[in-house]
Amino acid sequence: QVQLVESGGGLVQPGGSLRLSCAASGDSLDYYAIVWFRQAPGKEREGVSCISSSDDGRTDYADSVKGRFTISRDNAKNTVYLQMNSLKPEDTAVYYCHADVVFTTRDYWGQGTQVTVSS
Question: Closest by alpha carbon to 68, among 90, 53, 94, 52?
C-alpha cells in the first residue's frame, strides 16, 4: 500500500510562488506515473500536470499552467514536486497528487493541500 502525503500549500499573493511536494512511502515511485490534480470550490477536479515513470520522464501541463508550473521527481527522496510560479487567484484550489502504474491496480491519491492565491 502506498501512502502519498502532499505538503507545501498555503496563502500567497498573486505573482508569488509555491512548491508542492508529494512524498511517498510503501513503494518506490520510480514506476509510477504521477498526476497533480486540483479542485476549486464548486468546480470539478482537473488535471494540472503529469510526469511519466522514471524510465521515460515525459511531462505535460494543462494550458492554464503551461509556462508557470514545473513538475519534477526526486527518486532518492521518493518525492514528486510541483513548482508553481506567477500564481494567479484562479489557481486557488486543493491540490492532490495521484500515482498509478498502468495496467495494474496500483492507484493511489494523497489527501490534498490547500493553495490560496489572494492579496
Answer: 90
Phi, then psi, of 13 in degrees rounded to 5: -80, 155
Burial of 56 (0-12, 13-18, 19+ CB in 10 A): exposed
Question: Mind listing the pLDDT tens digit of every residue in the chain (119 residues)?
Answer: 899 999 999 999 999 999 999 999 999 999 899 999 999 999 999 999 999 987 788 999 999 999 999 999 999 999 999 999 999 999 999 999 999 998 888 899 999 999 999 99
Q: How many CB atoms lie within 10 A of CB 4?
A: 23
Question: DSSP letter at 66?
Answer: T
